[in-house]
Amino acid sequence: MLYREAGDFKTTYRSDQQTFPIKSERFLFWAVIALVALAVPFFINDYLEKAVLIPFLVYAMAALGLNILIGYCGQVSLGTGGFMAVGAYATYKLMTGFEWMPMPVIIILAGFITASVGIVFGLPSLRIKGFYLAVATLASQFFLVWLFNKVPWFYNHSATGQITAPPREFLGFTLTGANAEPYATYLFCLGFVFVFAWVARNLTRGRIGRQWMAIRDMDIAAEIIGVNPLMSKLSAFAVSSFYIGIAGALYFSVWTGAAEVTEAFGIDKSFDVLFMIIIGGLGSILGSLIGAAFIVLLPVLMTNIFARWLGMSTEIAEHMQITIVGVLIIFFLIKEPHGIAALWRTIKEKLRLWPFPH
Amino acid sequence: MTLVDTLPAGQREVLLEVDNISLSFGGVKAISNISFDIRVGEIRAIIGPNGAGKTSMLNVINGFYHPQEGTITFEGVPRKRMRPHHAATHGIARTFQNIALFRGMSTLDNIMTGRGTLMKRNLLWQALWTGPAEAEEIEHREAVEKIIDFLEIQHIRKTPVGRLPYGLQKRVELGRALAAEPRLLLLDEPMAGMNREEKEDMSRFIIDVNTQFGTTIALIEHDMGVVMDLSDRVVVLDYGKKIGDGPPEEVRNNQDVIDAYLGVPHE
Ligand SMILES: Nc1ncnc2c1ncn2[C@@H]1O[C@H](COP(=O)(O)OP(=O)(O)O)[C@@H](O)[C@H]1O
Ligand SMILES: [Mg+2]
Asked: Looking at B158, B180, B202, which one is the last position of a domain?
């Protein structure tokens, strides 16, 4: 009786459209939010922050963005790393060029800058799709990395070619630089993920989201019933890049504090985020979060279980981890294209009917 | 009832005028010099053997194919080259010969997508949801629920359309087209592959759409019984040419039409 739907009738369309239509689910959601926002900051430490929580939040942001593009709008992209780089370099230029600018504003602006770059690199999607589009976005990945390497203006002519985040405070909390507080960076990133997961949910449940999905499911029919493919695809590229840009901005400013483009934003980033949404669930907000948690936590668990407890070499643990991810991706692509989120949904449906299975 | 409704179909105002349209794909001439009109409030059947060019004609009407020659005039305005989504925003909706639903979405979402042309709130409002975007969503949900009631598909509202049987998918597709509140509805073989009972249901829906909502309909259909029952006027195509045009009884007795259907060789 954990999961009760009986007696929870919908009498208005408004309540029928809620994100969590079932009361117990709504309760669970707010309980989790209360825990992560109010309790975690009291016991967070450097390790939890830098190895688990911030990576999760940054990748969750990127996965939300990529899922909007691939999972909802059906436009395949391998340019995630490149767009994260745009967010990171935009943040760096804004932080060093406008020292008075508050961090949240910088991060959001970096998102908008990445969105406009995303629109430009989304233009080929109006002509090509599927595999060919993937290749085109791959080209944008390499182009962007090359650009940030090639033009010294982007890294303020620093001798190392690296970008480094100067220390910044917001409302008295140090967010960047060596003295940043774990609880502050955590809450900062959590705020972004909370707000923009909610925004993603809003966008995907209304007209624009349905038009994205229509393009994904059958683009010709979508156009014939009145979906403007140009607006739909480019808005998906814009929104997606906005999220990925913010992920790149947070990655650079509050997580690593310094970055070198080839190393930080290479093609492997693009694949990591792609694997997250495949495993978590294409076309699912929750799936994006689950996928990010999974890919971030897996190496942490693997090192702990295999290297620390079972005494294997870290190298073997690392290989095991790659194998596990590979097997899971094959499994999900073949058996459950909607990922862990869909498995969760199935369990929920079973729970709703439990203990009477019919 | 308005004055228009009481006039016989042939005397009503012209809604769509197809004038001397020719369309070819490479060497294949799909449509040659076809002209006909569709008048306000009528059900206009388009018939002809397979490959006659019927689907191509609908594709021309809603801007998906661009004819090499000829003009289309809709509501008195001659049309320039246009994209299909413009035709949709100008009030032309359609269904497809091969079901073209959005398979990953529920019945409700498919039909809601059909209302996209009537919804105005932009991306920023939608990102916020609470307020205008939600109000708009609810307003359109109410309209869509009326269509769901009309088509008697309440029970499959939340079902992903991929799981529905063929006959119901066809019905959902009609719902999605109706959701746009079109002034011209193009139906491409809405009853193909249906059994007798399903055909009767679909015929009833088509008649009700025509009489209750006053929607003008162009209907491609092979079942002559259905065509005779439903349509006000019939245009007959064969090998991309028009070989007959008029009220159903007249067309049925036309020798060229009989020959085309019996497969009499062309000279
Ligand atoms: N996109 C296309 N490319 C090439 N040929 C086409 C295309 N669409 C239709 N045709 C051809 O045009 C002719 C008419 O087809 P169609 O309009 O589908 O006929 P109907 O709907 O009457 O069965 C056929 O010979 C068909 O092969
Ligand atoms: Mg056809």
From this structure: B180
Same domain, B50 and B128: no
Here the ipTM equals 0.91
- Give the predicted TM-score (pTM) of the model: 0.91
CB contact under 8 A, A220 and B114: no
**Best CA proximity match to A244, nearest among A208, A272, A209:** A272
B154: containing domain: 105-180
Q: How many CB atoms lie within 10 A of CB A220?
A: 13
Q: Express each pLDDT in B53-101 by its tens digit.
A: 999 999 999 999 999 999 999 999 998 778 899 999 999 999 999 999 9
- Region of B160 on the Ramachandran plot (φ > 0 left; ψ -120 to 50 alpha; else beta): beta
Amino acid identity for residue A79 in this structure: G
Say how many CB pairs under 8 Å bridge A and B.
Answer: 106
Contacting residues for A209 by C-beta, under 8 A, at least 6 apart: A72, A203, B126
**d(Cα B241, Cα B219) in Å, to the nearest integer?**
18
CB B69 within 8 A of CB B21: yes
**Contact residues, chain A, for B105 at CB < 8 Å:** 210, 213-214, 217
Residues B72, B204, single domain; the answer is yes
Q: The tokens of B122 are what?
A: 């932009």
Q: How many CB atoms lie within 10 A of CB B188?
A: 22
